Each structure stands twice: as structure tokens, then as C-alpha cells.
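Researcher: I'd like a candidate sequence for this fold, 501 residues long. If you have to choose between options at a position, lean toward the conservative one.
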């Protein structure tokens, strides 16, 4: 694969070669973050959306190419070589049946849109991506929309969306000859990095806030052999320290300030439209922490529009936990000043007060016409239980999407007819303690529960399923089951079989 990309500062616009970037991935002139640009993506970024779209070829799929190399075609009016949309759609679909690891990856299957490594056969892949898009009829009803889908990124190899970014950036690290990689993390980035580094035979260092990450995630980084450092600080403190260290040692930084991470994380945008038979949802709802993922998905959709693969982009809304809401506050601030907050939320994945990619994410929201919303701990807990009760499940940070959607609908920002996709970022098994505490009624404090409405209290009561502890005696068990079944039938809480696809 020919590597033709450059890095462009999203703040001052300066361009550099990919391998000329500083180890902290910041622009030396203005400290801005970079994005990856290609000859064909000029003008496609969230920062100058719409420009250059005259170069986009027709989306006709009439003549699919027979080989990957046939996939790049020069347009008559321009020297810029643009991938051919019709050909790409066909090729991406065809690769699903290939036995080659790189084709089986739901990231590298779309490699025409991320030519960031020279030898695509050498990429580090765990067959990430290709995650399901579930219909969520009961959650749709609860949110007040007719059609709701969930793109479950928790169904990736290490259980979170981070795998799609890690395969991309870690493959670049390998190509550039790094022996060590590192990240600061609330748990999922570190789990993904540890797994991919192990596959590649690289050494890795993980910085995590002590006591503030879910056990499932902590166990993963140990299982995959990372050097795990628990720091007595929060995520923001971990990232600050690591950013200094990578300037002193030859360590490759794998946080989402690394723009190659976002190239992998943009590919679920392609999967979503592919899974919707090349239709575009009206709205995409994404959790916001360090704000790399919303930026990446926005880039994916905007590039597809620029290339003529789709005719419009969805509105992209970002939801933050109320206790970790710097972007929400920024939108509400008259002076538009980013003020970091001291973050606190049980959704530990997004317990971030000073998000690195806030500028990129805010532009995605503004360019696509989306919103930034915040949700309380009670709202997150309820939404997580509702997603679980639909047989899908997710980790707390992912549940902010349903909680946020309810608010967007209530405020009239999303209408009933709009097709909405929630991006569920992590698997329910990442944080089982949260789930157990919720069902035992031990998650929320008395003060938090005191603020619940009658309807919320009833919803919690119907959803909570604490385990029964019984004597192993037939009569005792039978009586208990009869009681429970009668109560459930009376309440009508039994789901109608077959309603969820
Ligand atoms: N959801 C989950 C499950 C996450 O792990 C994260 C971030 C987010 C949402 C937010 O994504 O940061 O791109 O806005 N987790 C990072 C980590 C910070 O270290 O695992 P974002």
C-alpha cells in the first residue's frame, strides 16, 4: 500500500510528514493536535467541511474493480487520485469472505481509506471491527423514537471500541521500529494496547488512576503482560505525566492524541452505513470522555461524504456524565473557554476532566448539527439496566447514549421519525461490579435515590434483579419460583418473545 498521507495541525493548519511528528503528537508552533490527511481527503475534515467536494466522483457501483489496485482512479478534472466509491463498496463486501487476516479485520477491510502503513500484510490485527448493529425496539420506546439501533463496539476482541484504533496506531509503531509503547488510560485503551502489543511482540507500559478503573479492564492489561503502573492521580494526571516521559524515552504514545488511532476508529462509520445498506442514519449518539472517538467517527462520515460514498452525514451528538462534563460546559459558556473540571462519575471510562480532543469533537458536533448533553448518575444507571434488559448490555460509559437520547428527544432535538444509532463503546463484562451493585440496590446513595421521580422508582423496581439465595430444597425453590412468576405475570413485565431481533 503506498503511503501518501500527511499530518495537518487542526489548530493552525501546518502540515508535516507522518514520521516528522513530535513524540507527544503536538504541533511545535501552536500545541494543536494533528489529523491524518490524504491527497483525496483535502477539504473533507470537520474543520473545513464541504470544501473541495467538486472532486467527489459519482457513487455508481456499475463497474466493480477486479483487484485492489484497480481501486484507485484518477478523476478527469483533478490530479488528485480518489478512491472509486462504487468499486470500494464492492471490494469491502467481498473481503468479508476472504481468509486473509487483513481482510477479516473490520478496520483493514476499509484500507483504501486509511493508507497509513506501507506493508498491509504486516499489520497487527485481532480481527477487530465487523461489530453488530442491533435493533433496540424497547429502548426506542423508552426514548420516544420509532427506530433505534445500537452499534456495539463492545463486541471487539478486547471488549471495547479501542481495538479499532489500536490496530491502526500500533501497526504504525511497528513500522517505525518502536520497541516500547505506552498509554494513560481509564482501562479500555490499556486493555487494547496490551493485547495488540503482545501480538506484535512489543513491550508496553500502562498508566492508570489507582482504584478508579473497573476490575475487568485492570485484569486484561495484566493478562496480556503489560507493565501496569497505578498512579495516585486521575486520568488527566496520568496523561500529563506520560506526555512528559515520552519526550525523554523512545516510547510510542498510544493515546488518542495519536492521530493514527482515530484512523482506525473512523471505520465503524463505514460499517454503520454498510449495515444500513448505504443509508445514513439521521443521528449518531456517542459517549464523550477524552473526545477522540466522536472526532474519529465524524471524520469517517465526512470523508465518506467527500468521496461520494454517502450524500449527507448524520448529526453527531456527544453525551457526557454530569460529573465529567467539560465539553457540555464549554457549549454553555458565553466566552467559549475550555475550563477543565475535577471529574467524578461511576462511569469510570469517561471520568475525564481535561479532554485532549475537545476542539476536534466540538467541531464535529457543530459541523454535523449535533448537540452536547449531560446525564446524571441515576440516568446512567437506569439506561444501563434498560440496555441490559434488552439482552444487549454494555458498560456504564456506553449507557450515557440512551440516557442522553431521552433528553434530546424530550427537548425536541431529535424527532420520533429520525433513525438514531447509539454507539455502545464497551462490553457489559468490563465492569460487572457496577451491575451487581445496581441490582442489589447498592449502587446509588440514599441522597441520589431521594431525587428520583415516581416513574423512575417504578422503572428501577421492575429492572432490578437481585439474585435469590435459597436452601437447596425442592419445596422451598418451587415456592419461591411460583411467587416470582406470579408477581412477574401480574406486573406484565415479561417480555413478549421474539420482539428483539
Ligand atoms: N466509552 C468507553 C467504554 C471508553 O472506554 C471511553 C474512553 C469512552 C467511551 C470515551 O471515548 O475518550 O474517545 O471520548 N476510554 C479511554 C480509556 C479514555 O483510557 O480507555 P473518548
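Model: Candidate sequence:
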Amino acid at each position: 500500500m503506498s503511503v501518501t498521507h500527511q499530518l495537518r495541525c487542526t489548530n493552525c493548519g501546518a502540515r508535516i510528514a507522518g514520521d516528522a511528528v513530535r513524540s507527544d503528537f503536538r504541533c511545535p508552533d501552536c500545541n494543536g493536535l494533528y489529523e491524518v490527511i490524504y491527497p483525496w481527503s483535502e477539504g473533507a475534515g470537520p474543520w473545513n467541511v464541504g470544501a473541495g467536494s467538486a472532486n467527489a466522483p459519482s457513487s455508481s457501483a456499475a463497474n466493480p474493480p477486479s483487484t485492489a489496485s484497480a481501486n484507485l482512479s484518477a478523476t478527469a478534472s483533478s490530479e488528485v487520485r480518489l478512491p472509486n466509491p462504487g468499486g470500494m463498496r464492492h471490494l469491502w463486501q467481498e473481503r468479508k469472505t476472504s481468509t486473509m487476516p487483513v481482510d477479516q479485520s473490520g478496520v483493514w477491510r476499509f484500507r483504501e481509506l486509511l493508507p497509513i502503513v506501507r506493508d498491509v500484510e504486516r499489520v497487527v490485527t485481532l480481527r477487530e471491527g465487523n461489530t453488530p448493529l442491533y435493533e433496540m425496539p424497547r429502548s426506542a420506546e423508552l426514548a420516544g423514537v420509532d427506530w433505534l439501533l445500537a452499534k456495539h463496539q463492545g463486541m471487539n476482541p478486547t471488549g471495547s471500541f479501542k481495538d479499532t484504533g489500536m490496530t491502526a496506531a500500533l501497526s504504525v509503531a511497528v513500522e517505525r521500529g518502536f520497541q516500547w509503547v505506552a498509554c494513560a488510560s481509564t482501562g479500555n485503551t490499556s486493555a487494547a494496547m496490551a493485547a495488540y502489543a503482545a501480538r506484535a511482540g512489543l513491550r508496553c507500559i500502562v498508566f492508570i488512576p489507582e482504584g478508579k478503573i473497573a476490575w475487568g479492564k485492570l485484569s486484561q492489561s495484566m493478562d496480556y503482560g503489560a507493565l501496569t503502573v497505578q498512579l495516585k492521580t486521575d486520568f488527566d494526571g496520568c496523561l500529563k505525566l506520560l506526555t512528559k516521559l515520552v519526550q525523554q524515552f523512545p516510547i510510542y504514545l498510544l493515546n488518542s492524541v495519536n492521530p493514527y488511532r482515530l484512523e482506525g476508529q473512523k471505520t465503524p462509520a463505514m460499517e454503520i452505513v454498510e449495515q444500513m445498506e448505504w443509508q445514513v442514519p439521521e443521528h449518531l449518539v456517542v459517549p464523550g470522555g477524552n473526545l477522540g472517538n466522536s472526532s474519529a467517527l465524524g471524520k469517517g462520515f465526512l470523508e465518506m461524504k467527500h468521496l461520494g460514498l454517502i450524500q449527507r452525514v448524520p448529526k453527531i451528538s456527544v453525551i457526557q456524565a454530569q460529573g465529567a462534563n467539560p465539553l457540555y460546559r464549554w457549549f454553555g459558556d458565553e466566552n467559549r473557554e475550555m475550563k477543565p473540571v475535577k471529574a467524578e462519575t461511576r462511569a469510570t471510562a469517561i471520568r475525564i476532566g481535561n479532554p485532549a480532543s475537545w476542539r476536534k469533537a466540538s467541531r464535529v458536533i457543530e459541523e454535523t448539527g449535533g448537540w452536547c448533553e449531560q446525564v446524571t448518575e441515576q440516568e446512567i444507571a437506569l439506561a444501563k439496566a434498560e440496555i441490559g434488559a434488552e439482552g444487549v448490555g454494555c458498560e456504564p460509559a456506553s449507557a450515557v447514549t440512551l440516557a442522553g437520547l431521552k433528553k434530546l428527544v424530550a427537548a425536541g432535538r431529535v424527532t420520533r421519525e429520525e433513525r438514531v444509532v447509539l454507539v455502545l463503546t464497551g462490553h457489559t463484562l468490563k465492569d460487572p461490579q457496577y451491575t451487581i451493585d445496581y441490582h442489589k440496590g447498592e449502587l446509588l446513595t440514599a441522597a441520589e435515590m431521594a431525587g428520583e421521580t415516581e416513574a423512575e422508582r417504578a422503572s428501577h423496581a421492575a429492572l432490578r434483579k437481585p439474585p435469590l439465595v435459597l436452601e437447596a430444597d425442592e419445596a422451598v425453590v418451587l415456592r419461591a419460583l411460583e411467587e416470582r412468576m406470579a408477581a412477574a405475570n401480574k406486573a406484565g413485565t415479561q417480555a413478549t418473545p421474539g420482539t428483539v431481533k
